[in-house]
Amino acid sequence: MTSSALNKSGRWLRSSAICGTVVWLLVQFLLPNRTLEISLTSRLVLLSMLVLTPLALSLVPVVMDDNKEPFAYFAARLLQPFAAAAATISFLLNEGKIAAELASLWLVFTILVALFGLGRLIQRPTGFEQFCVVAAALYLPVGGTWLVASRLGYRPLGFSTAIVLLTAMHFHYAGFAAPVITAMVGHRIRQLRPSSMKIFNSISIGVIAGTPLLAAGITFSPVLEVISAVILSLSLMGICFLMIGIVVPDTRNAFARTFLLISSISVFAGMLFATGYSIGSVSGHPIISIPQMVESHGIANAFGFTLCALLAFVITQSKDNKG
Questions:
Q1: CA torsion sign, 124 to 130 to 132 to 133?
Q2: Nearest-angstrom CA–CA distance, 61 and 155
Q3: In 183-207, which positions are buried (b, 16+ CB within 10 angstroms) versus exposed (e)?
Q4: Domain-wise residue ranges, the chain
Q5: Are the C-beta atoms of residues 185 and 177 closer than 8 Å to each other?
Q6: Residues 29-65: pLDDT tens digits?
Q7: CATH assignment, 3-322
Q8: Packing angle of the helix pair 178-192, 222-242 (nearest 10 deg)
Q9: Helices then strands (H, E): number in the chain?
Q10: Ordered DSSP codes for 41-85
Q11: Model pTM above 0.85
């Protein structure tokens, strides 16, 4: 993608994230009172749609190095703020057909993102950081599908209301945002220390594979759930070690550097809670309850790891474009 097109798409998505932040803050006073885990999970899902997803999507062209803006990406970025607004309204309504129809616009957006990822997969990504972006794009509509199921009140496989919504959240955060962040780390490592790319490549496989494996484990096998939770946790911790060791020292902007450090620290706390929850669910002796899991892992992952990392890379990329 040309520099001018990259700047234009980035400005649109960053503006959407800024407006989304305002909407997210206002919506806090309007959401219906539900159980703790559902109320908090709803807020974190909305944060992803309104703020985190547009920030992450704005970074995708940086990694993919497109000569022109693919139509699916163009359509997705234009639709994103309207889809997020419709999905937000759906959370203000009771579960049912109307809420699901509003959330379906977000599903359409995620499908467009997936079509972009599929197109790049057909063209064969040139590095593992690009594979991370492709995986993120293909995982996102899974989150969109579970979101619609949640707003409809549908309970696939007999899952509880909380689990359906948590699955939607999982694929927005671990499925989409985390691989994009991983891709940005890989992009910077390739620029700064190409000799470390083999280490990055190995770790990024765990990030890509961890999300679907964890979902499969929750659905079919408690043992697989623990194994996949450990793989995903260790992989994200590995990415943060690379971020601290290679990316942070070369980040000149003080705000970006601070955000990267906060992001890295948050991963260690959040992933320990996630692993503890999975082990407890398999052993039959819960270590952390679902509400505690959302409060600890969910908040650390959303605000600490994801938001801080995306802000850091957006700041860095904006400085590079101006430079």
A1: negative
A2: 36
A3: bbbbbbbbeebeeebeebeebbebb
A4: 3-322
A5: no
A6: 888 888 768 889 999 999 999 999 999 999 998 888 7
A7: 1.20.210.10
A8: 40
A9: 14, 0
A10: HHHHHHHIIIIIHHHHHHHHHHHH--SS--HHHHHHHHHHHHHHH
A11: yes
